[in-house]
């Protein structure tokens, strides 16, 4: 059971407390009952399906002065032995509150409390009531990251995520662009034992050599020209939490060596500093490169692969996920009909057929933008095949190319364009694949006006 399905009874003679709790839980719980007189508890819990009783330790009535809460707790347990009771106490009553746990209270909370703490306590108490079978299912979904997928390939992915998320293993997430590697990383983090500590995401592929060190390792004041103050690096900021390095396949061999040193020694040295700082992080990494290409030692250090890749998982491309395409399309319809203040949308049969027949080179991201365009442009609340247009950016270039030429310069220009696009504009990687130096590639770019 979750809190939105729960019936809560609060018993306290302080009307201000009752008002505050009722106002807080109004949008969180199914029903909120309040009572100032503990004499009425029996009637309330026997005539209502109460999931949790919040019970004050002290009332102004003179029943067992100083122990009124314990008295009523025992009475409740006589009437309904399985009833969950949370005791409300002041700082001076901590010993009594601990005693109440021995008498069968589910937990206690000290007033004044933080609202977030109370919500968490109620949620945890409801969770403790749940049967082991249901608990297992709740554990499988204890995250606000929504990953949609009923296909066999996604079920296998979920199964693997459930196994590896609660461990401290470093994980390498593989998959094509647009498959949702970022979402998977956050899903792992939220199911991990480090979920209450920082989650830091870094797109390392976009960092220059200089930025790579200052951003990840931090720097001391005066370490370089613009270092006007001390700065904590992102690795240090992730201490005790999770560090997600996106597009790790795009970093240079020199950057790889520096990252490897940090992972091996579990300490980081800021630029301009002499002493290292110990760090305790869990590392998640992602790349769109196939593992066999990543394992090429001219491109990526094998010792670093072993460090970042205790377990690797592959997010399947959308074209291999079958009916997930329709599930995702309907999910995006709900999002964009609200965003653009449209009526409730549905997919026509012709739209579903068109969606299912497409190959999605841009994967889930391409489907998302396709549905968004359809919602904006559609003249009705039924999305038809003609409302669905796929991005020309993702279409194979050869479909729109003129008849191939045998001119060597034209062939060279085309090869350079394709390789640079493949590596998202990364000149170093493109030069490597073409068998050129960076300087030679730049000269050719200038020659062809690219």
């Amino acid at each position: 059971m979750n809190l939105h399905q729960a019936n809560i009874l609060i018993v306290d003679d302080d009307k201000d407390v009752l008002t505050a709790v009722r106002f807080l839980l109004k949008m969180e719980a199914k029903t909120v009952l309040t009572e100032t007189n503990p004499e009425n508890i029996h009637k309330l819990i026997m005539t209502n399906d109460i999931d949790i009783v919040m019970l004050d330790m002290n009332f102004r009535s003179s029943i067992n002065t100083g122990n009124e809460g314990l008295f009523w707790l025992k009475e409740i347990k006589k009437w309904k032995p399985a009833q969950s009771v949370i005791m409300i106490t002041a700082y001076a009553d901590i010993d009594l509150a601990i005693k109440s746990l021995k008498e069968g209270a589910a937990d206690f909370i000290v007033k004044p409390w933080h609202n977030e703490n109370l919500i968490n306590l109620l949620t945890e108490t409801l969770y403790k009531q749940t049967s082991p079978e249901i608990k297992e299912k709740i554990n499988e979904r204890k995250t606000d990251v929504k990953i949609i997928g009923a296909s066999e390939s996604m079920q296998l992915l979920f199964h693997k995520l459930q196994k590896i998320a609660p461990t401290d293993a470093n994980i390498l997430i593989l998959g094509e662009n647009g498959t949702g590697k970022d979402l998977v990383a956050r899903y792992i983090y939220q199911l991990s034992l480090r979920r209450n500590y920082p989650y830091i995401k870094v797109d390392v592929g976009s960092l220059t050599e200089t930025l790579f060190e200052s951003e990840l390792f931090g720097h001391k004041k005066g370490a370089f020209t613009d270092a006007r103050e001390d700065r904590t690096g992102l690795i240090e900021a992730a201490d005790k939490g999770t560090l997600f390095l996106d597009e790790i396949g795009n970093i240079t061999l020199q950057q790889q060596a520096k990252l490897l040193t940090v992972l091996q020694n579990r300490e980081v040295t800021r630029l301009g500093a002499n002493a290292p700082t110990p760090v305790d992080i869990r590392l998640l990494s992602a790349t769109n490169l196939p593992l066999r290409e990543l394992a090429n030692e001219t491109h990526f250090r094998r010792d670093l692969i072993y460090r970042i890749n205790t377990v690797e998982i592959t997010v399947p491309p959308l074209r291999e996920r079958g009916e997930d395409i329709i599930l995702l399309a309907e999910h995006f319809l709900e999002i964009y009909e609200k965003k653009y203040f449209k009526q409730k949308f549905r997919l026509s049969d012709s739209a579903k057929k068109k969606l299912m027949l497409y190959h999605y080179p841009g994967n889930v991201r391409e489907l998302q933008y396709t549905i968004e365009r359809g919602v904006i442009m559609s003249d009705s609340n039924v999305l038809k095949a003609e409302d669905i247009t796929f991005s020309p950016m993702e279409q194979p270039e050869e479909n729109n190319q003129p008849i191939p030429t045998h001119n060597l310069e034209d062939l060279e220009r085309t090869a350079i364009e394709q390789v640079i696009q493949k590596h998202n504009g990364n000149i170093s990687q493109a030069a490597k694949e073409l068998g050129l130096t960076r300087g030679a590639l730049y000269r050719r770019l200038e020659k062809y006006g690219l």
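Confidence is low (pLDDT under 50) at residues 133-141, 397-403. The CA atoms of residues 257 and 304 lie 8 Å apart.
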